[in-house]
Amino acid sequence: MKMLDYVKVILEKVSFESSLFEKELKKSLKLLSFREVRELRKWCYDKFGSIYRGILNKTFHRAQLSV
What we know:
Largest sheet: none
């Protein structure tokens, strides 16, 4: 299993609780390549954008600043 696929599974499993979701999302950004982060970003907005848009905006914005 690729790391990106693993991260997606983890995020789906913790998506019931916002603080866990945010924590795992931040951890995942440290494990993935730039290309994988872009792919994860699109997937996250498609899958969780309606419930966690604020977390996604904040986390992915910070990731862009640190590159």
